[in-house]
Design brief:
By secondary structure, this protein is an alpha+beta fold. The chain is built from 3 helices and 9 strands. The longest helix is centred in the N-terminal third of the chain and has 17 residues, at 2-18. It starts with a helix and ends with a strand.
Length: 147
């Protein structure tokens, strides 16, 4: 299945990159139909962004709620979500991220990654929360609004 997905992505990237900026309405619809069948949300969005760029459209920036960085343990100040949100992380030594409500009650583990690397986690919860981050090395976290 991964090979088929990768092949589709390659074909889509190739076809979008070959197209000139002057696409007809029909050609745009064809390209959009190719993109809509991609099941991976992140790849599909990236393909839309590529097509938008080819059409001369500005791609919207993510609405960042907050960004954090550090080493070791940290509890963030509370922040409010009025819509769904997603947390992205990068860690040099693995990372554990836990979600707490504004009273300090544990809600759930957002991330538990034992190896260095990057990741992300979607959360539909609304309200006021804080994160507790634990890592033995340096880490970075970005939280964005998902609309």
């Amino acid at each position: 299945m991964k090979k088929v997905t990768l092949l589709m992505i390659f074909i889509l990237l190739f076809s979008i990159n070959i197209l000139a900026g002057d696409l007809s309405k029909e050609e745009i619809i064809i390209e959009m139909k190719k993109i809509t069948v991609i099941t991976n949300r992140d790849i599909r969005l990236e393909m839309y962004d590529i097509l938008s760029g080819k059409l001369g459209l500005k791609v919207a920036d993510d609405t960042i709620i907050n960004e954090f960085s550090g080493s070791g343990s940290k509890t963030t100040r509370p922040f409010n979500f009025k819509t769904a949100w997603e947390v992205f992380w990068e860690s040099e030594q693995g990372i554990q991220i836990s979600l707490y409500d504004k009273e300090g009650n544990f809600i759930e583990s957002v991330a538990s990654q034992m190896e260095p690397g990057k990741g992300n986690s979607y959360n539909p919860r609304k309200g006021t929360f804080c994160l507790n981050i634990f890592s033995m090395g340096d880490w970075k976290i970005k939280i964005i609004v998902v609309e």
